[in-house]
Write a structure and sequence with these properties.
The chain has 624 residues and is of the alpha/beta class. Helices cover 33% and strands 11% of the residues. Helix 20 links the parallel strand 15 (498-504) and strand 16 (537-542).
Length: 624
């Protein structure tokens, strides 16, 4: 044998025996370029394994055996879907790793990605920091703060072993009757654009524009949602029809997606809604034509929960058509989320019968694998306890408190001829705190907190109610009286120096929050009338949107929009008592009557009670 041939054979034998007697597989080699790893892996995948990667299941419908057998690409926790009530971070990690080990034991060992709705902090998880909902963050006008919140949220998500957050919602809510309006930063697309810094916080700073990016084990994949026009539906009806021309769609609802793609957002979720009668989950022109081809989005597109089912009316009436329409439109991963065999079998038949071309399947899988490789999932698939201590940390609670105080919007502070009521003196003879929302952590956190719809009461998670924050803020010599719904006689006879009334909406999410009248729920109006009729009062409105307040405005001495502040009620008292000044500005128009709706800042006939951008300011008055 010649010397040259012997060298070649030795090199081949070395290549073969590296890694325990098997040839090194390119897709498992972290030193290889990602595009080579993707190409190598896809060349080894069967059709069944590719379709498995396009499938996302809720954790309740999965087992490690299912993950292995079907090569399932992703799992999620829907709202309230937890290992157990009040589960610890360690229990979350154990659960996630159990499923991941199932994926890793499959033929090719492709790791799964685990998603969760971390939409105002890691809100499904007990003792996590609950930040203000997006409408409140829009009031801060502080993109750097929002980026810091994204980074904190990423750490808390990673603390539970999860690596994918269904956030941010970049809807432009144009009608506050919509039940998801609190998930929108503003009715003004420019404010929504500014707040896409949450993506940078979640994922890290992207060195290459428009390429999906996750900057390490302390970051998570983000998801811009819901593409597109979800905030513009007629009469604010959830999942309804957005009637608007191309110019309006492009200039109002689309700009935040341009900026999200530039920032390297890893995934985009499609909206349940329709555009001019065409379901977004079946809209190839916008998903493939605009998002993928024109904007050059390189991550993967995911459906919403049973999103393709709702292409038909009633939902799931023709599932074969729904799968065909959704995949043809350009959706890459389907949030099934329960019956994986039905989806897999249906799509398999559509491919085998050449209704869905193989190139569409390959495009979807290539995008999913690209995100997984860029996340480092193939090299570090299992979670550990490195970040457990970040869940609900004091540093994060301090950040949430900062966000709360910056989100407070002061709408009224005394009459013109009177001295302002705020900031309140900490030292007073006797003060009254009233209202349904003063001592209710669930109410101040709102929907998407521990459960999908949210909860009432103070036992859902760890946090500080507004009443507790007031008690801590006032001087020890001040006599604080709390009565949820006092009558006028009680107020007048109480010899109170002033009163704080905290009222607002009850928790809700999505369609359950659609509301055509936007009145303050009872007994809120009665509490305002009784208390403010008997003593100088500040009314704090806890809500996900503007509510009908004009009938009571004359009797209210000071009025504060607190939005849905989350777990850190001290942020409210920070500005009420003058430790910090009010700086928040309305992120959306405050209407006079619901008959004016929809009414937005750019309308030709604009006659609000308070315009977008309105917000009185105060100076800090420490020591009062």
């Amino acid at each position: 044998m010649g010397k040259k041939m012997r060298v070649i054979l030795e090199a081949l034998m070395l290549l073969f025996f590296m890694g325990g007697g098997e040839a090194v597989e390119i897709y498992k080699d972290p030193s290889q370029l990602i595009h080579r790893r993707i190409k190598d892996l896809m060349g080894k995948m069967s059709l069944a394994e590719k379709i498995g990667q396009m499938t996302q299941l809720d954790r309740t419908a999965a087992t490690p055996e299912i993950m292995k057998e079907f090569s399932i690409g992703s799992l999620l926790s829907g709202g309230g879907s937890v290992p157990r009530l009040q589960a610890t971070p360690e229990e979350w990690i154990e659960m996630v790793n159990g499923f991941q080990n199932g994926s890793l034991s499959s033929r090719l060992g492709i790791p799964m990605i685990y998603g969760i709705d971390a939409v105002h902090g890691h809100n499904n998880v007990y003792k996590a920091t609950i930040f203000p909902h997006n409408v409140g963050l829009g009031a801060t006008r502080d993109p750097k703060l929002v980026q810091r919140i994204g980074a904190a949220t990423a750490l808390e998500v990673r603390a539970t072993g999860i690596n994918y957050a269904f956030a941010p919602c970049i809807a432009v809510c144009r009608d506050p009757r919509w039940g998801r309006c609190y998930e929108s930063y503003s009715e003004d697309p420019r404010i929504v654009i500014a707040m896409t810094t949450l993506i940078t916080g979640l994922q890290g700073h992207n060195p290459i524009n428009s390429m999906p990016f996750v900057g390490g084990k302390n970051k998570v994949a983000a998801c811009a949602k819901h593409f597109v026009g979800d905030g513009g539906t007629k009469d604010g009806v959830n999942e309804n029809n957005t009637v608007i021309d191309w110019h309006g769609l492009r200039n109002i609802h689309m700009p935040a997606y341009y900026h999200s793609v530039i920032k390297g957002v890893s995934t985009v979720m499609v909206s349940y809604s329709s555009w001019n009668g065409n379901k977004m989950h079946a809209n190839r022109r916008l998903i493939t034509g605009l998002l993928k081809n024109y904007l050059k989005f390189k991550g993967f597109v995911i459906s919403d929960w049973q999103g393709i089912d709702r292409i038909t009316s009633p939902p799931h009436a023709n599932y074969t058509y729904s799968v065909q329409a959704g995949i043809h439109a350009g959706i890459d991963m389907i949030m099934v989320p329960f019956n994986h065999t039905e989806f897999i079998d249906t799509l398999t038949k559509l491919v085998e019968s050449k209704v869905i071309p193989m190139r569409r399947i390959n495009d979807a899988v290539r995008r999913i694998l690209r995100v997984k490789f860029l996340m480092g999932l193939f090299d570090n698939p299992l979670a550990d306890y490195t970040f457990v201590h970040h869940l609900g940390s004091q540093v994060h609670r301090d950040l949430a408190r900062e966000a709360v105080r910056k989100s407070m919007v002061l709408l009224k502070n005394g009459e013109t001829a009177d001295p302002p009521l705020l900031p309140l003196p900490k030292k007073a003879g006797r003060i009254l705190v009233a209202g349904t929302h003063a001592d209710n952590l669930g109410y101040q956190c709102g929907g998407w907190t521990i459960t999908w719809q949210g909860l009432a009461g103070n036992n859902l998670t760890q946090g500080t109610t507004i009443l507790s924050a007031i008690s801590s803020a006032v001087d020890p010599s001040t006599d604080l009286v709390y009565k949820e719904n006092p009558d006028l006689a009680f107020v007048k006879s109480g010899n109170f120096s002033y009163a704080v009334v905290v009222v607002g909406e009850h928790p809700y999410a999505e369609t359950d929050g659609d509301n055509s009248n936007l009145t303050i729920p009872e007994p809120g109006p009665a509490t305002i009338t009784n208390v403010c009729g008997g003593v100088k009062c500040v009314v704090v409105v806890v809500s996900g949107r503007p509510l009908l307040i004009q009938p009571y405005l004359r009797s209210i001495h000071a009025l504060v929009a607190a939005w849905l502040p989350g777990s850190e009620g001290q942020g409210v008292t920070d500005v009420l008592f003058g430790d910090y000044g009010f700086t928040g500005k309305l992120p959306r128009t405050w209407f006079k009557t619901v008959d004016q709706l929809p009414m937005n800042f750019d309308d030709p006939h604009y006659d609000p009670l308070f315009p977008i951008g309105f917000g009185l300011t105060t100076s800090p008055a420490a020591g009062r």
